[in-house]
Amino acid sequence: MKHAFLDKYSDLGSIIHRVDPRVKVIFFFVLILVIVSTPPQELLKFSGYFLMLLILLLLSRIPLLYVFARSLVIIPFVLLTAIFIPFFKGGEVAGSYNFLTLNLTISYKGILIFQNILIKSWLSVLSLTILTSTTKFSSLLKALETLKVPRVIILIASFFYRYIFLLIDQIMKIKNARDSRSFKKNPVYQFKIIGYMIGELFIRTYERAERIYLAMVSRGFSGTIHTLESFKINRFDLYFLGSLITIIFFIRLWR
């Protein structure tokens, strides 16, 4: 079975890859906070944030198409949640359209809010994509743990990453078994079989979770995941964090 691992390019030896994971987590967290707090009408500042991310991406030597393709996944969800804002937000009318018996008006304020949500969402996801693409997932979890992120969040993310691929394998096995039995094209029959597949997957997942839980309890698992990896912040990490945060706030405060 083939899977698209989150840390597909995390083994590259670029400058960004060698930065301490805790430093990268702090930097991207600050960057996302600054992006979210930027007023929506200041488009030039968003261009500055994007230019900074593009430079980091080029330094990381990760394929641009790979990162941009992953970051654009958020766009359909943003469109589903924010596409109607321009039609319902008050303010100066930008245009009016008739659809059947409906008279729809678009306001400039609504367009600005929609544009703001779209840009901020994409830049935030692009930041997280660069973070996860330049850091091993295990190192990222270890960094979050040392930064005092609640342990339950670390455990959920760890188990999700560890067993999601087994779940994908199980889904593919069920799908192959279905296809090998000449899956009919009747829509009603298709829905019936898909319902059986979902039920079978739920039962197998529940049983596997029970076996995993019993195995962990029998081995004395206490809620802490021990690793041999250790982090050490050097002078370059401090220069990296200090200079980039200075640039971020310079862009944010520049008029």
Strands, count: 2
SSE arrangement, N to C? HHHHHHEEHHHHH
Q: Overall 3D geometry?
A: flat
| Range of helix content | 55-70%
Strand arrangement within the widest β-sheet reads 1-2
- Total DSSP helices: 11
Number of domains: 1
Q: pLDDT below 50 for ≥5 consecutive residues: which ranges?
A: none
Largest beta-sheet details: 2 strands, antiparallel
User: What percent of residues are in strands?
Assistant: 5-15%
Distance between the termini: 53 Å
Q: What does the average pLDDT come to?
A: 82
Structural class comes to mainly alpha
The value of Rg in angstroms is 23 Å
Describe what this molecule looks like in 3D.
The protein has 255 residues and is mainly alpha-helical. It has one domain. It has eleven helices and two strands, in the order H-H-H-H-H-H-E-E-H-H-H-H-H. The chain has a two-stranded antiparallel sheet. A hairpin with a 2-residue loop joins strand 1 and strand 2. Helix 2 runs antiparallel to helix 7, helix 8 packs antiparallel against helix 9 and helix 9 packs across helix 10. It is flat, with a radius of gyration of 23 Å. It starts with 14 loop residues before the first helix and ends with a helix.
Write the layout of secondary structure elements.
Blueprint: H1 15-18, H2 21-37, H3 43-60, H4 64-71, H5 74-82, H6 85-88, E1 93-99, E2 102-107, H7 108-133, H8 137-146, H9 151-180, H10 187-218, H11 235-253
Antiparallel strand pairs: 1-2
Helix pairs in contact: 2-7, 2-11, 3-7, 4-7, 5-7, 8-9, 9-10
